[in-house]
Amino acid sequence: MQQSSAPAPAGRFSDDERDAVYRAIHTRRDVRGQFLPDPIPDDLLRQLLLAAHHAPSVGLMQPWNFIVIENPSVKSRIREAFERANQDAVRLFPAERRALYSRLKLEGISEAPVNLCVTCDRSRGGDVVLGRTHNRDTDIYSTVCAVQNLWLAARAEGIGLGWVSIFDDADLRSILHLPDHVMPVAYLCLGHVAELYEEPELQARGWASRLPLDDLIFRDRWGEAR
Ligand SMILES: Cc1cc2c(cc1C)N(C[C@H](O)[C@H](O)[C@H](O)COP(=O)(O)O)c1[nH]c(=O)[nH]c(=O)c1N2
Questions:
Q1: In CATH, what number does 31-195 get?
Q2: Mean pLDDT calculated for residue range 6-23
Q3: Closest ligand 1 atom, CA of 165?
Q4: According to the model, what pLDDT value does residue 214 have?
Q5: In the prediction, which pLDDT does 65 show?
Q6: Transmembrane residues, as ranges (predicted)?
Q7: Is 150 strand, coil or helix?
Q8: What is the pLDDT of residues 131-152, one digit of tens each?
Q9: Residue 211 β-bridge partners
Q10: Gap from CA of 167 to ligand 1 centroid (Å)
Q11: Lower CB count within 10 Å: N or C terminus of the chain?
């Protein structure tokens, strides 16, 4: 017999619950330099990973894996990979931005007690996955949804999280022994934090700023460039 579970009524959030969700969204920050050395208890880390694991995914593919990295020698190889990539990165910016770029702290690999690589197993679910038939990259999008869930849950738990993407993919693959069908999607640094920036650190440091929302909304103006 086929099993089914009927949809339950959509419970409304209380005002406090709703405010808490928005607070997590609006005060979530990318953390690089504010990590404390205190360890993250295993059950708390598991809670965060459970939040990630409840992300939406194409065809319920759940293509993610979570590689937990705490070993200092692995971290130090990752840090070296970052350094190599970052030396290339700085040269790509116009000369007048390079000094500011070089002053930015863009990772907390060694300081964060836990590093996490969130990967996407592109073969999970077989060749044909519902919803992925016409856009193969939806598995990667799903994995990014898991990262965002993790990021928001971490914020609610007082855990800082920083995403580091300045790597040569081949370095991450080789250090973490990833097979070809597994893609490293996000390299994350996690740890307790004493304080958080009130605005994106890149904005506080004059690198970029949040765009006005109204400039990004297009409604019934299909003829116009966007
Ligand atoms: C895909 C992706 C990749 C990266 C980032 C984010 C995302 C989504 N961010 C963090 C990014 O700079 C930050 O989110 C924005 O500046 C906005 O700041 P808040 O996250 O709101 O604090 C980031 N930060 C950093 O210091 N080094 C990095 O390599 C990256 N890479």
A1: 3.40.109.10
A2: 92
A3: 29
A4: 95
A5: 98
A6: none
A7: helix
A8: 999 999 999 999 999 999 999 9
A9: none
A10: 14
A11: N
How far is it, in rounded angstroms, from Cα 129 to Cα 61?
Answer: 7
Query: SS3 of 34, please?
Result: coil
Asked if residues 120 and 178 have their Cβ atoms less than 8 Å apart, the reply is no
Please compute the mean of the pLDDT values over residues 16-28 and round it to a whole number: 98
Task: Mention every residue, 6+ apart, whose C-beta is less than 8 A from residue 98.
Answer: 90, 91
Which residue is associated with the tokens 């080789």?
174
- SS3 of 49, please? helix
The ranges assigned to domains in the chain are 31-195
User: What's the mean pLDDT in 27-32?
Assistant: 98
Q: How far apart are CA 60 and CA 49, in angstroms?
A: 17
C-alpha 183/C-alpha 77 separation (Å) is 19
pLDDT of residue 224: 63
- Of 200, 220, 218, 219, the closest CA to residue 210 belongs to 200
Of 36-50, 68-82, 128-142, 209-223, the least confident: 209-223
CB 151 within 8 A of CB 74: no
Question: Within 6 Å (CB) of ligand 1, which residues are found?
Answer: 29-30, 32, 106-107, 162-166, 200-202
Do 86 and 168 meet the contact criterion of CB atoms below 8 Å apart? no
